[in-house]
Amino acid sequence: MVEKGNSFASTEAYIATFPPEIQRLLQDVRETIRSVAPEAKEKISYQMPTFELHGNLVHFAAFKNHIGFYPGADGIAAFKDELSAYKGAKGSVQFPLDKPLPRELIGRITAYRVSRNKARADAKRGKKA
Hints:
Blueprint: H1 11-15, H2 20-36, E1 41-45, E2 48-52, E3 56-62, E4 66-70, H3 72-78, H4 80-83, E5 87-89, E6 92-96, H5 103-128
Helix pairs in contact: 2-5, 3-5
Domain YdhG-like: 24-112
InterPro entries: YdhG-like
Pfam family, one: DUF1801
């Protein structure tokens, strides 16, 4: 549970602030993202673990009752039907701590974001050429 003013040097430092059972869930999210976006770089942005590939790819964070996953508005819209079982907002979804983590869905959303970010980067390069 992130407190205002905390600044984390790394994803490891962020994850280490949680109890072991939450650390496992955060590591599961991290490994899932890494498996479909191995070329993405990790950083802390908005005080959350973030993967970056041609811009922000996805963020994730732990809260009292859920794991927040932030694939942006397009990532949420593209999986609207599958995400309808979860609380969320325009660019985020909440996976309850008392339910199994939908790793496969997280992986597919991340893969979608990878393709969108790469396409946008390719289009920018094409315009400049």
